[in-house]
Amino acid sequence: MWMIRAVLPGVWLLCLLLGLAPTAQAQQQTGQGQALLESLDAPSYDAKAEAIEAIIVSGDERSRRWLDELLGGKLQRHKDTGRFVIVLENRSRNWPVIDALTFEDAGEMSRRDLDRIGINNALRGQLQSALAVLDLYTDDVDDRRDAARELLGSVDAPMVEPLREVIASEDDAEVRRLLEQALAIHRLEQGEIEAIADLEGSLNSRVRSALNSATRSDDPLVADAASAALADIEQRLRINSGLETLYFGLSLGSVLVLAAIGLAITFGVMGVINMAHGELIMLGAYTTWAMQQLLPGQPGLALVLSIPAGFLVAALAGVAIERSVIQFLKGRPLETLLATFGVSLILQQLVRTVISPQNRTVVSPEWMSGSLMINEGLSLTLNRLFVLGFALVVFACLMLVMRRTRLGLEVRAVTQNRAMARSMGIRATRVDIMTFALGSGVAGLAGVALSQLTNVGPNLGQNYIIDSFMVVVFGGVGNLWGTLVAGLSLGVINQVLEPWAGAVLAKIIVLVFIILFIQKRPRGLFPQKGRAAEG
Amino acid sequence: MWLMQPFNEGATRLFLGVLLACLALVTVLHLAVPAGHPLHVSAYTVTLLGKYLSYALLAVAVDLVWGYLGILSLGHGAFFALGGYAMGMYLMRQIGDRGTYGDPILPDFMVFLNWDSLPWYWLGFDMPWFAFLMVMLVPGALALVFGFLAFRSRVTGVYLSIITQAMTFALMLAFFRNEMGFGGNNGLTDFRELLGFDLRTDATRLGLFIATGVALALGYVLCRAIVASKLGRVSVACRDAEARTRFLGYRVERFQLFVFVVSAMLAGVAGALYVPQVGIINPSEFSPIFSIEIVLWVALGGRGTLYGAVIGALLVNYAKTVFTGVMPDAWLFALGGMFVLVTVFLPRGVAGLLAYRFKGQGFKRGSNETLSHDISKEASA
Amino acid sequence: MIPSNPYRTPRWLAASLLSAAVATPALAQEDPIKVGILHSLSGTMAISETVLKDTVEMLIEQQNAEGGLLGRELEAVVVDPASDWPLFAEKARELLAQEEVDVIFGNWTSVSRKSVLPVVEELNGLLFYPVQYEGEESSENVFYTGAAPNQQAIPAVNYLMNDVGVERWVLAGTDYVYPRTTNKILDAYLKSHGVADEDIMINYTPFGHSDWQNIVSEIKDFGSQGKKTAVVSTINGDANVPFYRELGNQGLDAADIPVVAFSVGEQELTGIDTGPLVGHLAAWNYFMSVDTDVNYDFIDAWIEYTGDEMAVTNDPMEAHYIGFNMWAEAVRKAGTTDVDAVKDAIIGVSVPNLTGGYAAMMPNHHITKPVLIGEIQDNGQFSIVWETPSTVAGDAWSDYLEGSRDLISDWRKPMECGNYNVVEGSCGGSEAETE
Amino acid sequence: MSFLSSLADRDHVFDFLVPATSPVDVRHGPILYLEDVSVSFDGFKAIDDLNLTIDDGELRCIIGPNGAGKTTMMDIITGKTRPDSGSVWFGSRHNLLTMNEPEIASLGIGRKFQKPTVFEALSVFENLELAMAADKRILPTLTARMTGEVRDRIEEVLETIGLEALRNGPAGILSHGQKQWLEIGMLLMQRPRLLLIDEPVAGMTEQEMERTAELLTGLAGKGKQSVVVVEHDMGFVRSIAGTVTVLHQGSVLAEGSMDQVASDPRVIEVYLGADPDEEAA
Prior knowledge:
The complex is a heterotetramer. By secondary structure, chain B is mainly alpha-helical. Chain B contains 15 helices and four strands. In chain B, a hairpin with a 2-residue loop joins strand 2 (193-194) and strand 3 (197-198). The radius of gyration of chain B is 21 Å and the shape is globular. Chain D is α/β, with parallel strands linked by helices. Mean pLDDT of chain D is 77; it is low at 15-22 and 274-281. Chain D: This is Lipopolysaccharide export system ATP-binding protein LptB.
C-alpha cells in the first residue's frame, strides 16, 4: 500500500509535465486499452494499484474517464464475454451500459452478468489525489484550491520538484499557500524542522495531523517545535469551537422554532392543542420527497417547489382536520388534544400503508450539501445554514401576516373576544379555518426543512411534537416572539451542555430547567399580563 | 366514618357487585371448566384480564385528578412506571443466583456492565414489605415535590399538562441511560417468583388477577369516599371556580396537592400489579404517548365518573388486543378513529350513555356539561 | 387474515369484555402447520420489521408451492406487537397459548427478545431470532440466526486494524444493551491488541437522536491527532440518517475517517442519500450485492413478491431465509413439528445460505456465518471489499468479558445447558431449576 | 405573679400567640384603608395612587366608567393582584399586602365577582356548605360531618336569599339573578366583616333589584358587616343611598352623597363626555 501511495501521483504528475498527457500521441489500438483494463481486473489491491499506475503512464486519453468510472464503481466487466463496460445507471435489475473502450452505447445488461472492478478506501484515496494533481491544471481557481487541499498530506518525493514548478507558475496566492503547506508536510515527514514554520497557524485538520505525528518524532527539536506550533493552533481553534457551538445551538434552535411556530399559532392563538401537528410536519417532508420523485434529477428545483407545495398540502390537511374534528370541540382544548391524538395515529398508519413503513430518501441539492468554510478550522454546514435562514424568514412572514394583514387583525380580534368580533361582522368560523390552515401550513414548511436534516418516515412527527409544545409553553402561549426566543435559547443551552453532559443528560437537564422555569414564570417567558390573562 | 360512606351509594354497590361477580366468574371458569371446553378461560386470558384491571386502576387514579380536580396530568404514566420499577426491583432481587451469570446479588445486566456492587438505591428491595412500601412512597414523593412546586406557583390548565409531560419525558430519557442502574432500554425482566410463588404457574397468575381485582375495588372505594366527602366537593369547587374557592378561604393548592399525591400512589400500586403480570418493566412506560393514552381511556369511558374510567380502560385495551390480532396492519386506524369519534360525538364518554339509563348517586356530578366552565378557563390559559 | 382467530366474532363490540373473553376458546386446529410471525407492523420498529414479516410470508408461500411440509399446508399467523415491549410478551403468549403455533419467527430489538424469552421458555415454543445481537444469552427455545459479536464486530475491527491500518477508534452507539455490550467486547479486544486508552473514544446517544453536530465535530477533532482513525458505529436505525448527513456535510469522507456500521444495511440505506457516503463500511453476513445465483434468485423472488422493482434485501432477511429452511429441514428430519423433537433434530442441520456457502446450526443454537465487509456505493448497495476465508461459528458467550469467559452453551444431551461454567463444571443459573 | 396566674388561666391568650386571623381591630374607625395605591398592566395605569377609606359598618357605593379600575381595586383588596406601590390595611392591624387570598378571606373579607361565580356542578345547599365558616384544612375537610347547627345555619341563609325551594338542584340551573343571590348567600355563610360586591344587580329584573337592595341595606350597619358595592345602575345606587365614591382612571374623582356627586361637573363630564380609554383593561 504505502509504496503505491508514494509512487502513484508522482508518476502521473511527471508524465503530465513530460507532455505525454491526455493530448499525447494517439496509440488507439483498443488492444492496448483492453490489456490495461485486463490488468485492472486483478484479485489483489496491490496488483490493481500497479495497473492504475500503468494506465496513467500509458497516457491513454481515455484513462481519465476510466479512473473516474473506477472511482465511481461504474467500470465493470461482463462475466462471460469479458467485455469491459461502463454502467450508466445502476439502480434497478438491468443496467444501461456503454463500451469501456469505445464509449459507444452497448445496450442493457443484467446485474447478474456484470462484475464490478472493486476498489477499497486505500485505492480510492490515492486515485483521488492522483486526479487532484490533474485538477491543478484546470482554469477554475476553486477546483485548483480543492485539488491543492486534497494534496495536503499526500505529497511524496517524486512530486516535490514538479510541485515546486507548479507553485512557481501558479498565480493564485491561496493555491500557492496550500501547495507550500503540502510540501511542508512532506518536508516535515522527512524531519525538516524549518518546515514547521510554513505550517504555523494553519487550522487545516490534515496539517494538524501532520504536526501531531511530528510531536512523536525521535528528533526532540522537531517534536518540541511541532508541539509549540500545535499549541498555538489549538489556541485559535478554541475560539473557533466556541463559535461552532453557538452555531450548532442556533441551528438546533432554528429547527425547534420551525417545528413549534405552527403550534404557536394553532395552540397559542386558537387554543387548540393539536397533537397531529407532528404529522402535519411529516406531510410536509413527504411532499418534498414526492416532488423529488416527480422531478427526478433536479432535487434543487424540487426542493424549492416543495416549499409552496408542502405549505399547501399541510394547510389542506389542516383544514380537513379543523372541519372534521376541531370545529365540534369549540372551547374544549383538552378534548382537541384527545381527538387530534387519534388523528395523528391515523395519519401515521396512513403513511405506512399508502407509501411505506420505510424511510424515504430525500436528496440534498448540490448547493445545500457540504459546508461554507469560514476558515480552515471553522465551517458551517450548508443545509443547516439554509434551515436557520429559512426559519427566520418564515418567522418574519408570520409576524407580517399577524401584524399587518386583515387576517391577522381578525384572528387577534376573534381570539380576544369571539362574540364581539362576530358582532363586528367578522366571520369567526372562516377565521378559525384560516388560522388553523396557516398554522398547519407552517408545520408543512417545517417538514420541508426537516427533510434536509433527518429521516423522512412515519415517525418523523412524533420526534418533534413534544419538543414543540415545550418551546411554545416555555416561550409563553400566544406569543410568537416568545416561541422564537424560547426555541433558539433552548437550542443553544442544549448544545452548550452537550459536550460535557452528553446528549441524553443535556436533554434531561433542559427539560428539568423548563419545568422549574414554569414554576417561576407560570406563563412562560413572555406572558400576557393583565386581567385578560386571568381565568 | 367517611371511608364507609361509599357503601351507601347505589352506584358504588352496583359497581363493586359487578366487579366481584366477574372476578368470581372468571375464577370458576378458569378452574372448574376443563380446558378445551368453549367456556374455559385460559391462563392467557386471565393474565390479559389482570393487565386490563391494573390499567383500570390507573385510569381511576387519573380520573380522580382530571375528573374531579380539573388537573389534566399527562405524566401519570411516570407514577405508574415508578411503582412498576419498585416492584420490578423486588422481583429482580428474588431471582437470586438463578440469573444467567449465577451472581447471587447482582442482576444480570449489572454483571455484564461490570458493576461490582449494588447501587445504594437497590438496597432493601429484597425485603417485600420495603419494596411494597416504596411502590407507594416513591410515586407519592415525586408527586409531592412536583405538585408542591407546580400548585404553589399556580401553574394551571395546559401549562400544567405540558410540564407533567416534560416530567415523564425526562424520566424516560433518564431511565434509558444504562448508568442509572435500572437496566436501561431492556428494563427489568426474567422474573421468577413473587413472595415465594412461582410467577410462571397459572395458579400464581390467577392469584395476581384476583389481587388486582381486589386492589381495583379498594382503590375505587377510596376514590369514591374522597369524592363523596366535603373534600371531594371542595375539589369540584377548585375545578369549576378556583378563584372563588380561594376567596372562600380554602387553600386550593393544598387540596390539589393532597388529591394529586393520593392519585399518584394509586397509579404506583397499579404499576406494581401490572409488572409481574406482563413480566417486564422498561422505560417505554414513561413515554408521554402512554400517558396520553391513559387520559384517552378516561375520556372514552366518561370523565368525572370513576366507573367510566374503568369501563374506558377495559374497552380500549380489549379493543387494542383484538385489533392487533385481527387486523395487524390497520388496527391503528380503528383505534385512532375510535378516539376521534368518541371525543367528538360522545363528549361524556360511555358513562354518558349509561347515565341516560340510571340516574343514581354519583352519576350526576362531574358530567361534562358542567365541565365546560373550567375548560373554557383552560382555554384562556 | 387469520381464519382460526377467536376474536373474529363481531360480538366483541357488543359483548362486555369478560363474556367475549370467555367466548374465546383455544381452538386446536389439526391440519395446517401454524407459523407465528411476531414482528412490529406499527410503531418505531415497523421501519425495520415489516419486511421481515413479508419475508417469512413469502417463504411460507414458496414452501406451500412445493407442497408444504410433511404433506401439510403451512399457515402464517401474523400479529402486531406494535413496537411495544410488554405487548411482545403478550402476543407471544397469544401465539403459543391461543393459536398454538408450531414455531415463531420474530423480534428485532434485544428488549423485545428479552421480554418474549420467559414466555417462550415457559410454554416451550420455538423462536427464530434473525437479527445480529449482543450475545450473552443462550436459551433452549431460541435459535439465533443473526450474528453474535464474534461474527460481526470482531472481524470488522480486525479488518480495519490490519488492512486499513486504523490506530484510533471511536465507538459510537445508541444507548442500549447491544451497543453497550458490543463496545465493551471491542474495548477489551482492542486493548488486548495494544490499543492505548486515549486512542479509544466511546460515545452513546439516545434512540432516534437527530442532532449530531457536536458529536461529529468531536469525532473530527479526535481524528486529527495524526493517527488513522475509524468510527465503529452501533447506532440504531433511525438515528443513522441525520448522523450520516452530518458526516457528509462536515466533510468527513471515508478516505479520512471511515465509519463501519453494524446496524446499517440496504434497508436503512433506502432512506439515505448515499452520494456523500460512498466508501463508508458496514459489516454483515450478507449483502444484496453478493454475487451468487442463489442470491439473485432470492432477490428476483422477493421483487416478484413485493412487486417493487426497487425492493432491496438485507441481512436479517437472509437470517430468516436460513432459519426457515433449517426449521423446515429439522421438521422433515424429525418427521413431526413437535417442539422437543425439532429442537433435538435441528442441531447439526446445515442449509445453503445466500452467499454461496452453508450455514449449520451449532449446539449453542447459533449458526455458522461468513463475515463480509462492504463499502457503501452511490446506488445504496455495498461492494464487498473483504470477507472471512471460511464461515465463523456464533459464540453465545464472549471470550472478552470476564463474566462470560468461562461459560459455554451446549443443548445436546447430556449437557443441555445454556450457560455451563467450565471452571466450576456446573450449569449455573436459569435452566438449572427449570429442568 | 400575675404571669403565673395567667399561666394557670387556661383561657388566657398570650400576645405572641395571637394569630393573624384575630378579630379585626376597628377601634380607630376605618375598617378598610387604601393609601397611594398604584398598579399598572403593560404600562397602562389601572390604579393611579388611589386613596380610599371605608368605615366600620358603612355601606359604600363605588361608581365609575369602564376602565376606572373598580374591579382591579377589588382584586388588590382581596389579594388577587399585588399593587406596584401603596399600602392596604384591614382595620389597623392587618396589612393585606402581606397575605394571600385564603388568609384575607378567613380574616373576614368576602367578595362577590362581577360575573356571578358559583359552583355550578354542586347543589345550592353544597355551595353554601362549602362557604360555611369552618376549619378549612385538609383532614378536617375530608372527615367533616354535617351537624345540626350547620344545617340550621344553611337553612337560615337559604331563607335570607330566598332559594329554599331550589336547595338540592345544581347551582348551574339557577337564573342569573338567583346566582347573584346565591353568591351573596355564600358570602354571608363566611360571616365576613367586610363585603365587596361587584355589580350585584347586573341582569336583574326590577323586583329582584329591590330585593337585593333590601338585602344589602339590611346587611350593613355598626358592628355588623361593612359593605362596598360597585355598581353601574344609578337608580339602584340611589335606592340604597349611602356614600358614593366616583372612580375615574384609577383614582378618586369625587366622593359624597348621590346628589352631590351627581351634580359634580367633572362627574357629568366623565359620564357624558366620550372617555378616551373606554376599551382599556
